[in-house]
Amino acid sequence: MTAVRPGPPASPPEGRYGSGDRRFDRDADARADRKLRRIALVLGVLAVIGIGWYGWRSIAGHTVSAQVVAFKPVSDQAVEIHLEVHKDAGATVVCTLRSEDADHNEVGRKDVRLTQHAEQVDTVVTVRTTARGTTGELVGCDKASG
Question: What pTM, to 2 d.p., does this model score?
Fold first, then answer.
């Protein structure tokens, strides 16, 4: 019996596993890695700039703050609300106030337009109600448009 000696391994079909010179493949891989890193860096910087811009616009755009200092039901048809507003000196502001009854049903609502040219405005507003109001609440304030 004769032993069959295996010959040299057969080479793979041309182009199936890349070029035969691995040095060129490594250079191409390194170039591709550098290109991807640059793209990721640019996208990261753009994302940080976008988030920063959005945050700045969100914070800088709201220069109105307000609070209810006190409220007092004056009758079954009205509630007085003492409102304190901080705003830009020349800005006109619209604040929405409401009153609720003991069951938390809204019984009155009023929009108040503040045109005073002061930075701080203290005012007492009477909100008419359909039943006895037990609260006086600030819904919100915004700069008036137009």
Answer: 0.58
